[in-house]
Design goal:
The structure is a single chain. By secondary structure, this protein is mainly α. The chain has one domain. Helix content is about 70%, strand content about 0%. The protein is built from 16 helices and no strands. α5 packs antiparallel against α7. The N and C termini lie close together (about 5 Å). The mean pLDDT is about 90.
Length: about 350
């Protein structure tokens, strides 16, 4: 059986799970800042905070997914002339639109404040859409360097990429901002997220997994016992390092997330490989995942604003409310906007549905 280009059923599941994980962890974050711990219960608050830590694999997993698809799709053929132009149109333009959209509330603080926020959103990704700047860096990296990566040893490249990635994150996880560097506090707290060095291992893993797809699937089967137990072990490790105070970084830019994301990605890939077809609901979420990623925070903020105006004593159920409302509202908005000819420029296109592999 030869799979259709891009119709890898595992990717639909990884993309949807990654998307849902990001929305859920953001729902937890906002809920924990709005609902008093005494109302939610201290044990519940700690438990959800721990769940949020575990879910941080969602963001970096999208780099693995994105590069896997590109590498797999073009492993036997050259990149098209419109490779970058197409991705700028469907991904970068919505990023700019959303950068403007999420800056609008800052107008209330004055034109000067709004102008700074707008420029920060656009040029340094100072809103949750920052991830698109990272993805586009890897589009450029693939475009210019894939021919060299193709002839290098995967083991060598993966090792170097891991060392660079881990070393980069260690610097920002375990050091304080040096006073002699301008804007060092902002760099250490947020801007270090943007350069590709903090994500390059996921790119390398996705590149070689897609390039050597059959060998990758064989390796999943060969090391299946390690892959099955891996996410549990990395979750325990992350929670220990976090709750012990050794590594208190509360984001997907933790050093230990390298192992955690890798194990979760391989685990989901292995489990899904056993399915004949991916679950329809996950395919549906996958099709809307890009727009959900861009829009969900707006609807979380909207729901939270209304909740603060009219608070209800619902405890941790508030997390489910934020999660459900933001997912459903985002999907409806994406659906409506894509009925308009140019709606995709605002929020991205609805993805293609899954099709069975053919002979």
């Amino acid at each position: 059986m030869k799979k259709n280009q891009g119709m890898i059923k595992e990717i639909f599941v990884l993309r949807s799970i990654g998307c849902l994980s990001i929305v859920f962890l953001h729902s937890i974050f906002i809920a924990l800042t709005t609902v008093p711990i005494r109302e939610m219960g201290e044990l519940a608050a700690i438990s959800f905070d721990s769940v949020q830590m575990i879910l941080y694999y969602g963001t970096p997993m999208f780099i693995f997914i994105s590069e896997f698809l590109i590498s797999y799709s073009y492993r036997d053929r050259p990149l098209p002339d419109n490779f970058l132009r197409k991705r700028a149109r469907f991904i970068l333009i919505p990023y700019f639109v959303m950068a403007i959209f999420y800056s609008i509330p800052f107008i209330l603080e004055g034109i000067d404040v709004w102008t700074v926020k707008l420029l920060m959103n656009i040029f340094v990704g100072d809103y949750h859409g920052y991830f698109i700047l990272i993805i586009f860096q890897f589009y450029l990296f693939h475009y210019f360097f894939h021919r060299y990566l193709k002839v290098l040893s995967p083991r060598f490249v993966l090792t170097i990429a891991f060392i660079i990635n881990a070393g980069y994150l260690i610097i920002f996880n375990f050091t304080t901002p040096p006073e002699m560097i301008p804007f060092s506090t902002y760099i250490w707290e947020r801007f270090y997220w943007i350069p590709l060095f903090g994500w390059i291992f996921y790119f390398a893993l996705g590149y070689y997994s897609g390039l050597y797809y059959q060998s990758f699937i064989h390796s999943l089967q060969k090391f299946r016992y390690i892959i099955i137990i891996g996410p549990l072990l990395t979750s325990i490790l992350m929670l220990y390092l976090y709750h012990s105070g050794f590594l208190q970084v509360h984001s997907s830019k933790r050093t230990d997330i390298l192992l955690h994301t890798t194990m979760f990605s391989l685990f989901l890939f292995y489990v899904t490989s056993k399915f004949k077809t991916p679950p329809r609901i996950l395919v549906f979420i996958s099709q809307y995942s890009f727009g959900i990623y861009l829009l969900h925070y707006f609807y979380i903020f909207l729901a939270d604003y209304l909740f603060r105006l009219y608070p209800l004593n619902i405890g941790f159920t508030y997390i489910i409310l934020l999660f459900t409302f933001s997912i459903v509202s985002s999907i409806l908005t994406i659906y409506v906007l894509n009925k308009w000819k140019y709606g995709y420029l605002m929020i991205g296109k609805v993805g293609a549905p899954y099709k069975q592999s053919v002979e």
